[in-house]
Amino acid sequence: MTGLIDRDELLAALDRAAASRVTVISAPAGSGKSCLLRAWAARSSESNRLAVVQVNRDEQDAQAFWLAVLGAVRRASGASGRVEAPVATPDVNARAVADRVLAELTDAGGDLTVVVDDVHELKAPEALVQLAGLLNGLPPGVHAILATRRDLRLDLHRLRLAGELTELRAADLRFSQRETRRLLAAAGVRLSDAGRAVLQQRTEGWAAGLRLAVLSLAGHPDPERFVAEFSGTDRTVAEYLLGEMLERQPDDVRQLLLRTSLLDRVNGELADLLTGRSGSERILLGLEDANAFVVSLDPERTWFRYHHLFADLLRLELRRTCPEEVPGLHRRAAEWLLRHGDVVDAIRHTQAAGDWFAAARRLADYSFSLTLDGQAQTIEALLRAFPPGADADSSELAIAHATTEVAQGRLDQSAAHLAVAEAHIETTRPERRRRLQVAIASLKLSLARRRGSLAGVLEQAEFLASPMSGQSDEEIVLDGDLRAVALMNLGIVEAWALASPDAERHLLEGAALARENGRPYLEVACLAQAAFASKIRPLGATRRRCREAIALAERHGWDADPIIAPALIILAATMAWRGDFEGADRCLRRTERALRTDTGPGIRLLLHVGAGMLHAGRGRLLEALVEFDAAEALRSRLEGSHALANQVTGWRLATQARLARTGEARAALASLDPDRASAGEIRNAYAVISLADGDPAAALDAVRDVVEGRAPVIGYFTLVEAHLVAGLAHRDLGDARAATQAVEAALSLAEPDGVVLPFAMTGARELLEMLPRHETAHAALLGDILDVLRGSSAPAEDDVLAVAEELSPTELRVLRFLPTNLSRPEIAGELSVSVNTVNTHIRNIYAKLQARDRSSAVQRARALRLLGAGRTPGVKVTRSW
Amino acid sequence: MCGRLTVHDPGAMEQGPAFYAIRINGHLGAMVLCAFPEMTSQRRGAHTLLTGLLDRSALYGVLAEIEALGLDLVEVRQLESHRGCPGKSPT
How many separate domains does chain B show? Predict the structure, then answer.
């Protein structure tokens, strides 16, 4: 490539610098930082793995930055085959992603260098603080190289003192006389020693200047005259040389360069559109081959970007020569980008065209799907770019404002903006109204969920779940997103506030829709909630659902996110029900980690209930009471009802009674409203209190409606419990035969799911030991229960959190071809490897997937979700070089 | 004619605008001057002198532009006597 030579001395200097923990290359635009890094990376030995990140222009989204770093680190460490590419999510914060980067670097085991170019473009203050934190705490064997136009305000003081920080500055990057000679020679430019010296002096060894000069000098009829004229003018170097270079280009190339300079990245189709000609792709490929300022972004060479300084100069020249065309170019680019799903850039170009009203409308239309893409910070940045008091209708922006406020937990501000948006909706055209209505409704639901008042918005959610009729593909996708979110919200309301049987169906529909739409975060959220909605029965199916949700979350790195908490708690509960207290304990501890960043009262309540069950099962009544007390306190703070409210109250009262605090328990019972007092869980508690007070007859009275199926109950566990309490009452009354019958009834109910916990919680050990083995039809279950009651936790069925044997990254690449009709030699051709290699991979794939042939392997891979490439993440792919 | 998209930052400290003189090494041509529509330029020997009435954020916008274009900044000076007096031309 013209203008690029191996700068051996500089590379050696970087090699030396890179031996220290952190290297900062700080030099002005056009000093050759990126070229140096690219050359260094290309030469870097295989043992030193590189994670290369280029910061997007004016990056204000900390999460997007850290996701780019995480993706690069995973690719470098070879972890990318094991997990899905990281995508932005609505809830995950940048801090969590930054922590994950550190964790992956620690796991990588050394010999890894993180390279971050254009750090000066990083405008999110929190990201800079987190970056400094990462650099100060790099794991052993991990190095970092940063390139920036200006000195960074990163606190690297300690590294500097420890001699762990090396800097390369502008003077180090300047071309030496020898390098200038080699650069000219490499481009085939013949220049006298004197001419070369003049060029060197005039450019002061500035890389961009020399490279621009070479573009004009290559093939110039009279290089000496060119240099003489250059030295004779006192125009600034870059402007003079860019002008010369442009003048020497054919018209189609010049037009392409000028008109596409407005774009952050360009491909052939987009360039054709902006130039009004065809053949742009060929020109772009030619430019990359000949020009150090044009680089392709993908291995297929379809997307290109210009060096920033180069693009900035071209943009100025476009504004100078054809200012009247600039808004139209932005407009056309915006239309194309919108059609191709790049909404954020489309809105930016709409703003740049000065079409404030259209920009506001687009932001309103897409703020909902951008939120799903995890781009709340980007929405904020777009909002800031609107001029105050411009003709943008502020009511159009209300939805976007409401979205960013709710994302930051400012609920009242968000509600105020929502009110503006709602008032405005009547005036919008019908074809947009539906979309905005649904966005507003979803925001209201989200607000209500955060406030813990679910039942009040149910009507809203029902309206959301009705089918929608989108016309264009893009509308159908958006409708699909809205429907999935609506189904999720509806299902959550139904499950948590109403304990409605529809909840599970709605959540599973939502999960299926989210999967179709390529929204894994939404899918995980729906599946995790569906685990809660399934109300545990049958235990095996619920356990499978929890594991499915957890496995999907793990593949995406969300296994410590709040969204997965419901599935973790329910999994813990299924273990506790079966008597696997150790497994339940592990699972609950994991949930606590996942809930560190979420303070929603509903889910915390569930966590306390789970912990209380565990303690009660192990006979630790005092600890259990602390948890049930905490759950009860949260329940009373909820604005609406909670699906487990009666369970919480019932268990709390029963535990008080077992601790001989029946006075307290009776007082609490007396204050309950009559509706609740007739529920099975509360009746059971009343029976336990009566037993503790030595009144077994009252206990039998209390549970009669429960065991006879007349009292409303949350699940059949309540019935098991009622039978056992009845058994204890019969025993106290001296009726051994009735006691045996009651225990037998409890065992029959517990048998299908192998439920153990109620036997432990009710203190039924003595009853069970009384029961002669030959008199029960459930001897095996009886044996298991007695084992648990005598102190051995039930064996775990299998390790819940274990994952199947992993396919290597290469095996995954081969696997993706199996559903196609390509033959093995053709696959080998696609991957540029030998047929033997492909055969070996396929053998391994079959073995790991336990498949006999191609179709069963494909089937198995589909089931394991190894094939779904998913949609392209909404964030721009930050690929480097 | 070289209109640019200015990003308004309502959070920026609002100080009264002042006249600034910014000296850059070399002669800026029409292309690069498009980056500074709010400034007038004069040649001063081998330098270019850009002058204009700028508030704080506009000043930093101009300096960022100078950095982005790789220009050789020599001097930035606030012309005290003309502070806050639009309409009078600086000398």
Answer: 1
